[in-house]
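Hi R.,

As promised on Friday, here is the backbone we talked about, encoded as structure tokens. Could you run it through your design pipeline when you get a chance and send me back a sequence?
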């Protein structure tokens, strides 16, 4: 074991990913995609730049939600109380 301390908090894990592209899902059909530029502790939240609002849809044939629409939102602050899931997006090679 490298450290015997407590595990990192959600905010610490988010701070490690500043500068990376992420998707933040607020409910099963709506979220934001953008670059994580800042993490705030009071209020607990994140700032996204180059953000897009995304609409997701799942069907019986494709039960995993996929993006069906995007709308440019530029800069966005998202309070962590309203977040269901955060995904780190990897660049396709």
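Update: got your reply. Pasting your designed sequence below so it's all in one thread:
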């Amino acid at each position: 074991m490298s450290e015997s301390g407590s595990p990192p908090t959600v905010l610490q894990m988010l701070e490690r990913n500043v500068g990376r592209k992420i998707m933040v899902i607020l409910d099963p059909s709506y979220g934001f995609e953008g670059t994580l530029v800042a993490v705030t502790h009071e209020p607990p939240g994140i700032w996204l730049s180059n953000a897009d609002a995304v609409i997701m849809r799942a069907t019986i044939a494709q039960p995993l939600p996929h993006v069906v629409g995007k709308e440019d939102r530029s800069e966005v602050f998202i309070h962590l109380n309203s977040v269901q899931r955060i995904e780190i997006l990897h660049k396709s090679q």
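One thing I noticed while checking it: The mean pLDDT is 88.

Thanks again,
M.
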